Amino acid sequence: MNGHLISFEDMKQTVKEKLIVERLELEDVTAADIGDEMPLFGEGLGLDSVEAFEVMVGLEAVFGVMVEGIPAERLREHLTNVTSIARFVEASLREQADRLAETGHP
């Protein structure tokens, strides 16, 4: 998926549908049930560490965004809620595009 061709609202919807509901196979949760600012871990949606790992793997599968080398503290901040994930994806895709434009390499 190319994040540059979708709006921020569409990106948040994709995070909800593809990255959370479908990838985690949540049975009683729909994208409409997940608020943009709802905490995903602990209180709120109540995801656990195994699901957090699956979300991280999903970032690459769904958006082409790698999380390797990102300190755990920063990664936790990026995975707080749907909005923070969408911002992280948007910034990562922008960095990848800038790097590609500068060097001709990803």
Automatic annotation (TrEMBL):
Residues 10-93 form the Carrier domain. Pfam families: PP-binding. Gene3D superfamilies: ACP-like (1.10.1200.10). This is Acyl carrier protein.
